[in-house]
Amino acid sequence: MTTGPEPTPRPDRTFLPAELPALIEDPLFLARVDRARLLAGMAECWPDGVPAGTLAEDVHHLDRLGVRPPSERHGEWLSWLHLLLVSHGRADDAAALADAGYRLPWRTVWSRWVPPGARAACRASGRQVVALRVVEHEGAPVVSVHEQYVLARLERMEPDDEDAYYEYAVELDGGTVLAGPQLYRPFEADDLPDPYLPVLPEDLPELGEAALNGPDGWDGGAAGLPAAPAQVGHAVRVDGLAVFGGGWGYYAVELDPDAATGPFVDGSAPAVTALAPAGLPPEARRPDREWLARYYGSAALWTSDPADLPAGLRHEPTRRFLTEVGFPAVYHSLLDFGSGTLAEKGLVELRTAELHSPEESDFDGLGEHAYLIATDNDGLTMITVDGESGRVSRYSSDREEGDHYLGLMASSIEQFAALLRLYGTYYYGEDEAALADSGRRLRDWALELDPGLAASYFWPEIFQDREDYV
Description:
Layout: H1 20-23, H2 27-32, H3 35-45, H4 55-64, H5 74-87, H6 91-98, E1 106-113, E2 129-137, E3 140-148, E4 165-171, E5 177-184, H7 186-191, E6 209-214, E7 217-220, E8 234-238, E9 241-246, E10 249-255, H8 289-296, E11 301-302, H9 316-325, E12 327-328, E13 331-332, E14 337-338, H10 340-345, E15 348-351, E16 369-376, E17 381-386, E18 392-396, E19 405-410, H11 413-426, H12 432-449, H13 459-463, H14 466-469
Antiparallel strand pairs: 1-10, 2-3, 3-4, 4-5, 6-7, 6-8, 8-9, 9-10, 11-12, 13-14, 14-16, 15-16, 16-17, 17-18, 18-19
Helix pairs in contact: 4-5, 5-6, 11-12
């Protein structure tokens, strides 16, 4: 780390607010400009709100959360900007900022902390951390993380889901995920024939000193932790490293014990900037393989050679999507159904006449065959794509013959994949209010993308206002 006295930011550094869309992407500019001047310039540059999905959005959120170190501790502000750059996947820019001549009291080593402006580019879940430990496992320090379990499908919530979580085991030094995510739901664990096996043995020796963030700062045995806003609620210090967990995930930092730091979090004043409403991401209108793979990973996207697609799948846009783009063959935990059947069996052909009575709604335009692409977690519900129209529908296997139809899921498999990607990426929040806000935004995006969902049986359950339900 940089040693010696900390230079102060240059108060005479001049810039035109109109230049900020380009300047704010320059790590050397960020290193030099005073925090208060930067925020004042952002408010002038974007009077209707800073654009969502950008680094500027996350600078806005730092101020909203009360991250306001004074100018004489400019290096502490740069530590937070360094965290943002690492979290956005901009390692080179983070290194340039750290080497710009200012002393950082801490710098991020790795991050699975996903602030709102980085959601579109990150595969890490960025869920709220509810438990954090560092343990010794096979001779190495490993971070044990529990992330909050969240369902967007509110009717499927169980009373004890507040105690459910996703488990991860993560290498302390490098941030590599060693195991997980593994879901623990108390009611499911009670029904299992064998006891639930956690990702890591529960009796491993704990390392370091843990602390919880309270109204008066860090409470616990860990000394020398930098101040953090209330949403960063957990920390464990192990020698010169500390790992933190909060509302957007978790991250590890290297501490400089001799650099200036201290309490500074101040939420008494309103944020200087506002946030512009986020519009439907343009990639969702025509999802391509790169956009889906950025979240699911390329290996999870099921595709087929054109010659291997069934002849009954006559809908050309569907055939093209399944050969050139691919459908995510994964468990969609937020919506409690999975499309692993594609990876296991490919497209299973079903006869439409055995699923959908001509007297039922939405029968017109259907082909002779439908193809299974997903199954509900209840084991009784099938999600299919129609071979003629390309419509995606739900059918129950637990209803009377000819009366299996449960409504539209999406007007096309392309729109269905886009909806799943949007929910996987953007249904999040640092607390219940933020989670409810994300649900309302996604409802608007879903109806903009596919207006036919308004008549669906499935999606209105997802569109319920979380604050009214929980």
